[in-house]
Vacuolar family H+-ATPase subunit H (Simiaoa sunii), 199 residues
Amino acid sequence: MSSRIEQLIDEIEDYIESCKPKFMSSTEIIVNKDEIDELLRELRMKTPDEIKRYQKIISNKEAILNDAKAKAEALINEATVHTNELINEHEIMQQAYAQANEVVTMASKQAQEILDNATIEANELKSQAMQYMDDMLAHLENIISASTQQASSNYDTLIGNLNQYRDIIQSNRSELHPVDEDLEGIDNADKASDDLNVM
C-alpha cells in the first residue's frame, strides 16, 4: 500500500501531464495556480508525517534489540537455574558442573546469535527506511526544481512580452506628438508669410 505522500506525487505528475500546452510551445504548459498550490500545500503537510512514520520504523531497532536481550537473559537464567539444580545433587556434582558449563556456554552462544541477528535485521530495516525516504525526497526535489525552472522561464517570457508592448506604446505615443523639427518648419513658414504681407 503506497503512502499518501507517494499518492500526492503521483497526483502532481498526473496534473502536470493533464495541463494544456502553451500556444506555439512544445515544452511549456498552462498551470492552474490554485490547483497546483493546493497539491503542494497538502504535500508540505503530509511530508513531516511520513518522515515521522519512518523514524518510528527506525526506532523499532531498539525494540528488536531489547527483545533479543530479554530472550538472551531468559536463556542464561534458565541455564543458571539448571546449573544450580545439578550442583545441589552431591553425587553427580562434577558431572553437573561440566553439564552446567556446557549449558551456560550454549545459552551464551544462542544469546549472542540472537543479538547478532537482531542487530543485522534492525540495521537493514533502518537502511531500507532511510533509502526509501531519501528516494522519495529526491523525487520530490526533482519535481520542485523542474517547477521552479518552468516558473522562471514563464516569468522571463512575460517580461520580454511586456517590454515589447512598452516599446510599441512608446512608439505610438511619439506619433501623437510632432517632433521639434516639424515645429520649427511651421514657425519658419509663418514668418515667411508675414514678410510677404509687409512687402
